[in-house]
């Protein structure tokens, strides 16, 4: 849902001459709101998605603006635009992902419990990480960079052999009823069954496992390594399709660029969860406001007791997505009333409001993506 040239949203109302949202905004740029229009050169700055992750998505990171411009100039077939791509995922069901580097003591513990991992990284690099002290964050990052780069650049035959040995060992331990938590056994076997022989299986020893309950969110800044593993989420990001991949994928992988660009700052998994704030103006609205200007998301929960609800006007274009419930929407900007149900998507111009006449016995859940400058 958005205007990226690779997936410009189609307009379903055939009374509107423009066929896509991008064309309509180009012809009606004031709809973005004055601040957004000026700040983002007449373009909608965000892209809104719903993901249903059944098998893991690739280990990847998104470049910052400077790197995106460089990659796009050099390899436009792999990096289709010059924009950065910070993103935020909000769980609709229990959701699991990997994000950012684990605290060093956790990685060191795996290096000591998983000999196959240690073999890939090599004794020198492993010892360097073990010796790096918490009082020297730059030393820690440098040691972590060496370890992760050695892993990702290890020779295919060597890492496949080590991975097979590891999978065999953990499978035997599981069969014997042993606890495999020290080697992250459950996740390893699951990822290996989805992507056998893939280097991405080893990244579970470096990256935080983040579990979100419905309504919780994680924010992924530029250069933050991550992979979504399982569950449904709504996702919002800057309007870009730039992804540097390194594993758990059959797509183009760019290990060199990835290892160069990553943010090698270890942090606990709890630091990846974005706080959510109830709106001061409307108790039914919860705000997810990440540390970038490109996007904000509102979760709107309307209880069954309310039969008429106003989606308030704001100084930004927004996209409204219905997750549950039904209503009839009316707006001075719309030619006729709109029937809304699970999966309905509305584009709302800046400074326009919508009245919802609810018809479902169990209230409504909506998400609204916008840009609050």
From TrEMBL:
Keywords linked to the UniProt accession: Isomerase, Metal-binding, Zinc
Gene3D superfamilies the record matches: Jelly Rolls, Phosphomannose Isomerase, domain 2
Catalytic activity: D-mannose 6-phosphate = D-fructose 6-phosphate
Molecular function terms from GO: mannose-6-phosphate isomerase activity; zinc ion binding
Cofactor: Zn(2+)
UniProt-listed Enzyme Commission number(s): 5.3.1.8
Record's protein name: Mannose-6-phosphate isomerase
Species assigned in the record: Serinus canaria
Upper taxonomic lineage: Eukaryota, Metazoa, Chordata, Craniata, Vertebrata
């Amino acid at each position: 849902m958005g205007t990226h040239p690779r997936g410009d949203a189609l307009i379903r109302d055939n009374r509107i001459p423009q066929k896509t949202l991008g064309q309509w905004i180009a012809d009606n740029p004031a709809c973005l709101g004055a601040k957004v229009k000026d700040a983002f050169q007449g373009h909608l700055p965000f892209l809104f998605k719903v993901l249903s992750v059944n098998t893991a998505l690739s280990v990847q990171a998104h470049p910052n603006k400077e790197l995106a411009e460089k990659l796009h100039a050099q390899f436009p077939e792999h990096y289709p635009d010059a924009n950065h791509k910070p993103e935020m995922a909000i769980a609709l069901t229990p959701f699991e992902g990997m994000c950012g580097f684990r605290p060093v003591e956790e990685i060191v513990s795996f290096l000591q419990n998983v000999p196959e991992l240690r073999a890939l990284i090599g004794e020198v690099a492993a010892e360097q990480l073990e010796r790096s002290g918490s009082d020297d964050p730059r030393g820690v990052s440098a040691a972590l960079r060496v370890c992760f780069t050695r892993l990702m650049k290890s020779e295919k035959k060597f890492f496949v052999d080590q991975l097979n040995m590891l999978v065999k060992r953990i499978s035997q331990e599981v069969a014997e009823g042993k606890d495999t938590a020290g080697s992250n056994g459950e996740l390893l076997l699951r990822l290996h069954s989805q992507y056998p022989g893939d280097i991405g299986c080893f990244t579970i020893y470096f990256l935080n496992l983040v579990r979100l309950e419905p309504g919780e969110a994680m924010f992924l800044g530029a250069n933050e390594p991550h992979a979504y593993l399982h569950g449904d989420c709504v996702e919002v990001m800057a309007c870009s399709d730039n992804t540097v991949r390194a594993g758990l994928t059959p797509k183009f992988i760019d290990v060199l660029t990835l290892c160069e660009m990553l943010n090698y700052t270890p942090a606990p998994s709890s630091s990846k969860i974005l706080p959510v704030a109830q709106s001061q103006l409307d108790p039914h609205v919860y705000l997810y406001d990440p540390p970038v200007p490109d996007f904000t998301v509102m979760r709107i929960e309307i209880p069954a007791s309310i039969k008429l609800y106003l989606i308030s006007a704001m100084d930004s274009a927004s996209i409204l997505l219905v997750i549950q419930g039904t209503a009839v929407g009316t707006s001075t900007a719309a030619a006729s009333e709109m029937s809304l149900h699970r999966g309905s998507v509305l584009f709302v111009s800046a400074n326009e409001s919508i009245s919802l006449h609810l018809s479902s016995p169990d209230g409504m859940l909506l998400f609204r993506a916008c840009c609050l400058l």
